[in-house]
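Reviewers asked in the last cycle whether our approach scales beyond single polypeptides. To address this, we selected a multi-component target totalling 228 residues and predicted its structure end to end. The input consisted of the following lines:
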Amino acid sequence: EVQLVESGGGVVRPGGSLRLSCAASGFTFDDFGMTWVRQAPGKGLEWVSTVTWNGVSTNYADSVKGRFTISRDNAKNSLYLQMSSLRAEDTAFYHCARVDGSSWNLFDYWGQGTPVTVSS
Amino acid sequence: EIVLTQSPGTLSLSPGERVTLSCRASETVSSSYLAWYQQKPGQAPRLLVYGAASRATGIPDRFSGSGSGTDFTLTISRLEPEDSAVYHCQQYGSSPPTFGQGTKLEIK
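The resulting structure, written as structure tokens, was:
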């Protein structure tokens, strides 16, 4: 069974930093790209960033480009999102998800998410 | 980027009824790369349909997707209490991938 478990969320002041983690199990982690998607309170889902299976290629939403960094450690079956220069509008639940093998932008398994609150 | 608009925003129906949810795109969705997800409170989103009409693994045939171009629908026949959830559509044919704002379905 595919399982994705996020951690690392919390409350941070504007301008601060936070690192999210996603522990993967139940599949061969380094066979798949991985992604982060967030959901702000009362809003729809918003794609944040994707990384290829080997970590070589990454892609970011314009709203986080230059502030967030996605990475992975295949030896630890883990995905990360380093967030810096955080803003109030970054407040959201952050989900990690697996990229479907058939399409770069289709996400077939998701985690429950970890909450991030940016507030002074 | 492609903007997806879902309707209705919320609805309340009874078990056994049939419902059709709508997702309209601001421009043509390439290759009908349109997906639907179900999200229950406190749970991870679950992929229901991809390619506009293909059911994901383990999804019952009560769920069916259709459409092309800019207009897509998700139909749930014979509603069950556990179908209470928010339903999201997503286009994945062009970057960045984008989602609709969601439709909240309540089963009375």
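The interface with chain B takes residues 4, 43-47, 59, 61-62, 95, 97, 100, 103-113 of chain A (CB under 8 Å). We regard this as preliminary and will revisit it once experimental data from Aim 1 are available.
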